[in-house]
Amino acid sequence: MCKMTALFKHMDIRCSCGDHHIKSCEDVMETLKNQFLPCRGCLADDLKKFRPLNQQVDLKNVDYQWKLCKCGRRHLDSVMAHVLKIMMEEGQRKNNSTLRHAGTPLITPGYPLKSPPYLGKDSLVLLTDEIDHKSALRIYKEVPEVRGVLKGDLKETVGVTDSESSPHTYQLLKGCDLRCDVLETPSGPICIYKNQGQIHIEFPKPSNPKITVLHETMDQYSNPSVLDCTCGPGTLGISALKSGARKVVFNDIWYPAAWITSVNLGVNGFPVEFSQKKQGLIGEGDNFQVYCADLRDLKPFLDEKYDIGVIDPFPGVDFTEFSQIMGEICHEVIIIG
Ligand SMILES: C[S@@+](CC[C@H](N)C(=O)[O-])C[C@H]1O[C@@H](n2cnc3c(N)ncnc32)[C@H](O)[C@@H]1O
Ligand SMILES: [Zn+2]
Ligand SMILES: [Zn+2]
To answer: How many CB atoms are closer than 10 A to CB 300?
Structure first.
């Protein structure tokens, strides 16, 4: 039986684009080893980020073969130069634009890199604030490394900040916005998928302070139960399960977060069953449940008091009420963020 089918209890879990972009963490780690490192033939790039691209390159030479190595990869800057050339041709950027004007490259799988990556096909989601549909379509069709094009402002938080706020999403103009981040935990790496138009961006760091704080607290218990009440894509609760938490309850008010948390559980080796509901209990497994609810409404769903309650609000959110509610459901509450 296929590994993924077993992890998702015989459901065919696919990326929302219909493709098979969701892989098990084991498979992601296997391909990650040398994925972004140059081979002997890869061409280094000497483009200056603050100098207009048209002063450094003859733009008519820039196409999908420009600076392409036989191994099928190109330096990140070469890819972004190709993106920028299309934007300039389409009148979306001034002729004297520099690489910085092309947008934010979101690499997948994302993990802390010591040097700029060499990218293969389908390995980059482009986030950019000013772009029209036609340019997005051209970039998607002509730049093989680009998996999807998102329109949005990096400074704006994606998702919902609390129950009163209306959701903010980036607009997916073309392709697929699913990426995977690889995060180190005390019990090994975990893979956290995110539809980047719907889930906030957190760039992976060599050490993750949120995971460290949670594990320092967990170390004071033996196999604690954990309530990750603002779970986002599930990073903290999944890290807790991997390190031997007896039970974890995940919850998020935002359905795309609760859904991708359930997917991420399967991806990381915790078989999950989906409930087909979009509110309340979304998915469950042997020792975890995933809810989609305002944390103010969570208490009736819970059957016990949890050892550790984790609150990870977006910056600027007043979490006084969150702490008070969690204090009633958990022995100890930690506030992260
Ligand atoms: C900073 S993110 C959590 C990130 C997550 N801990 C991680 O490490 O990936 C904050 C989350 O709180 C959720 N949230 C906001 N208000 C909430 C509420 N009233 N009840 C439950 N979740 C809420 C948001 O949807 C968002 O996913
Ligand atoms: Zn996809
Ligand atoms: Zn190469």
So the answer is: 7
Indicate which residue's Cα is closest to atom 27 of ligand 1: 232
Ligand (nearest to CA of 195):
2
CA angle 14, 178, 161 (to 5 degrees): 115
As a whole number of Å, the CA-based R_g of the chain is 21
Q: Is the CB of 163 under 6 A from ligand 1?
A: yes
Whether 80 lines ligand 1, by a CB cut-off of 6 Å, is no
Residue 233 near ligand 1, beta carbon < 6 Å: yes
102, amino acid identity: A
The predicted model scores a pTM of: 0.96
CB contact at 8 A, 251 and 293:
yes
Residue 188 CA from chain centroid, whole number: 18
Report how far residue 44's alpha carbon sits from residue 75's, in angstroms, rounded to the nearest whole number: 7
Q: Give 67 Cα–ligand 3 centroid separation in angstroms.
A: 10
Give 193-242 pLDDT, tens digit per residue: 999 999 999 988 888 999 999 999 999 999 999 999 999 999 999 999 99
Ligand nearest to the CA of 38: 3
Domains in the chain: boundaries: 25-178, 205-335
The pLDDT of 135-152, averaged and rounded, is 98
Helix (H, G, I), strand (E, B) or coil at 279: coil
CATH number of the domain at 205-335, out of 1.10.1740.10, 3.30.70.120, 3.20.20.70, 3.40.50.150?
3.40.50.150
The string of pLDDT tens digits covering residues 154-166 is: 999 999 999 888 9
